[in-house]
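Single Protein Entry

Contents — chain, fold
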Amino acid sequence: MPNAEAAIRKAADILASARHATAFTGAGISVESGIPPFRGPEGLWSKVDPIVLDISYFHRHPLESWRVIKEIFFDFFGRAQPNPAHVALAELEKARVIMAVITQNIDNLHQLAGSRTVYELHGNSRFLVCEKCGTRTPAEEVNLEDLPPRCPRCGTVLKPDFVFFGEPLPEFDYGQAIRETEVADVFLLVGTTGEIMPASTLPVLAKRHGATIVEVNVEPSNYTESITDVFIRERASVALPALAREVLNGIRKENRADT
């Protein structure tokens, strides 16, 4: 297995010549922003009963669910900011190297970093939605000291606008993500283990459609030995800025040579 620097140079060459590169991100990209993953020994579910995010439980016990939701997603996660990995992806998108980001994360950090085309497979915690009238409200505009929060239009209990257990993935974002697997010639995997269905099937679909798979992870994932072509074993906040520099410097040299 090549070292990280050699893998980054190889990945940079692949991205620089890509026709349509798509990034696919998981919890690992946001860990360095202070957001722990849901699974694993240090994950959220080792400390909190996941029943609070079951949609049936939420409907039956909205106050109990909201007490935990507020503490985790708004008092704690809500203060998180993008790290250099998020910024690097936004820079690559601005340069038209990355055409879209598909994310399993609900933290809104890609958008805060400047990414514009983001497909959120599991929704977004920075918004609350009314399941009755459809009103979608920024969480910062809702008084979360009075739980459970209620819709300003109809008074129904508001729900965080992310996918609970027992809910389907958002139709539009999932449909666009499927389309990306069909058109991408490079799929850049960042911080995802490949354990969460059905999101985990997307890189496999991209590979079947002929995409080259570049993976950035601190440890091998379910993809590394099965579909990954270039594996960069490094933290996302280190690997992605280095990768972006390599790609963008190469593009600048080409542009100067053409003038």
User: Anything to note?
Assistant: Helices lie at 4-16, 55-60, 62-76, 84-94, 109-113, 171-183, 201-208, 236-258. Residues 37-79+127-162 form a domain with the SIR2/SIRT2 'Small Domain' fold (CATH 3.30.1600.10). The chain has two domains: 1-35+82-122+169-259, 37-79+127-162. The first strand starts at residue 21 and ends at 25.
